[in-house]
């Protein structure tokens, strides 16, 4: 058991700068690892919470004071008694559970972070450790949205040679959208996405087959044309606005589905009551208790990164190099455009 001093960026109140002060060195339970952080990524959720919007997912209130942060990359310091896949000294990335448990020891914005083994992966030697902080939350969210809820065929570390159907990703330039594009393509789907025209070429390089401007007045027809005769698996929509929802429901009405269900999977709660007749579900990116999480973190992602099938997307932008930089990094996250903000620790 280590007795290292641990410092954290504490959110003592919303709408105020984080305060850097000591936090307890975390104690791993049986399935946990303690990770010495080398980099953390900034997510929209961190910004929502820092801005005071702590009820965005309604059923997941976060107590204050707290330590925010979903994504960490670093070095394993110690492991719980059930952990056999990781050992001290390993380079890892993890999606930590702070928004699930509400506990400060599960927030990424500190030197020593507690992570669950099922949402932790080895970072292969060919990948910069600090870059890998951009991956885990998006990986967990894609796991839940595309594979648990939409029920796509699982990806393997080698790209599928077959095409199983078509999938729509609304907002392909978001972090969770770009990762969905890439992983859905690996698992054998034609990927149709919406984004600003400036991102179209980049999104095609990571797996999008068709990129449509989300402001195009004919966006629905372009999506229908792109689906063609393929069976349609559904839509993954992290944006959730009038335009995206209206289009996704109209598309669902007009195409044939993979399994009789045309899924509409949302990254944010449906505003109001969802209409009858559509299979609308809210993604919740914490699949760590289920076997699929172990599959994605332990059997898919490391090998796919190592062999180049999976690349880190969208672009990583380093916006700081210490805990002191986190307040500005979170506040400025709204400016991220097809890029993931990462702070080195
Ligand atoms: N439920 C869950 O488990 C879960 C998990 C993670 C995230 N989320 C949610 O998913 C959303 C995305 O988060 P993120 O961190 O991945 O986003 P992000 O990386 O900050 O997204 C930035 C991108 O959003 C795109 N965008 C903005 N308005 C758009 C619109 N009207 N239509 C399509 N794209 C638009 C922009 O694309 P262009 O540059 O192309 O304009 C921009 O590049 C957030 O609302 C977040 O809360 C949910």
TrEMBL record:
A Pfam cross-reference name: ADH_zinc_N
GO MF, any single term: oxidoreductase activity, acting on NAD(P)H
Domain Enoyl reductase (ER) stretches: 13-343
Origin superkingdom: Eukaryota
InterPro entries noted in UniProt: ADH-like_C (IPR013149), ADH-like_N (IPR013154), ER (IPR020843), GroES-like_sf (IPR011032), NAD(P)-bd_dom_sf (IPR036291), Trans-enoyl_RdTase-like (IPR047122)
Xref: CDD domains: enoyl_reductase_like
Gene3D superfamilies named among the record's database cross-references: Medium-chain alcohol dehydrogenases, catalytic domain, NAD(P)-binding Rossmann-like Domain
SMART domains: PKS_ER
Name the UniProt record assigns to this protein: Enoyl reductase (ER) domain-containing protein
Native organism: Mortierella isabellina
């Amino acid at each position: 058991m280590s007795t290292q001093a641990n410092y954290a960026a504490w959110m003592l109140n919303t709408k105020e700068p984080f305060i850097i002060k000591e936090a307890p060195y975390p104690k791993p339970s049986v399935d946990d690892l303690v990770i010495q952080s080398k980099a953390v990524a900034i997510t929209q959720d961190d910004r929502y919470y820092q801005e005071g919007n702590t009820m965005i997912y309604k059923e997941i209130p976060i107590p204050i004071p707290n330590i925010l942060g979903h994504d960490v990359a670093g070095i394993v310091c110690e492991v719980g008694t059930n952990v056999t896949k990781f050992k001290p000294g390993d380079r890892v990335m993890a999606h930590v559970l702070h928004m699930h448990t509400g506990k400060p020891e599960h927030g990424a914005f500190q030197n020593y972070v507690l992570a669950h083994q099922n949402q932790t992966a080895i970072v292969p030697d060919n990948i910069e450790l600090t870059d890998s902080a951009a991956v885990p939350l998006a990986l967990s969210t894609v796991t839940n949205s595309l594979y648990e809820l939409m029920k796509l065929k699982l990806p393997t570390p080698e790209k599928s040679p077959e095409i199983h159907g078509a999938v729509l990703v609304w907002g392909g330039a978001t972090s969770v959208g770009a990762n969905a594009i890439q992983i859905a393509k690996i698992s054998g789907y034609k990927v149709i996405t919406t984004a600003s025209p400036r991102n179209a070429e980049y999104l095609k390089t990571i797996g999008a087959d068709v990129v449509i401007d989300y402001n195009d007045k004919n966006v629905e027809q372009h999506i229908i044309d792109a689906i063609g005769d393929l069976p349609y698996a559904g839509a993954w929509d992290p944006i959730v606005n009038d335009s995206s929802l209206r289009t996704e429901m109209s598309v669902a009405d007009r195409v044939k589905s993979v399994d009789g269900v045309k899924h509409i999977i949302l990254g944010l709660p449906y505003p109001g009551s969802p209409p009858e007749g559509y299979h609308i579900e809210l993604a919740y990116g914490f699949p760590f208790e289920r076997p699929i999480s172990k599959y994605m973190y332990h059997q898919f992602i490391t090998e796919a990164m190592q062999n180049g099938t999976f690349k880190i997307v969208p672009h990583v932008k380093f916006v700081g190099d210490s805990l002191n930089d986190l307040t500005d990094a979170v506040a400025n996250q709204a400016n991220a455009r097809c890029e993931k903000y990462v702070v080195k620790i």
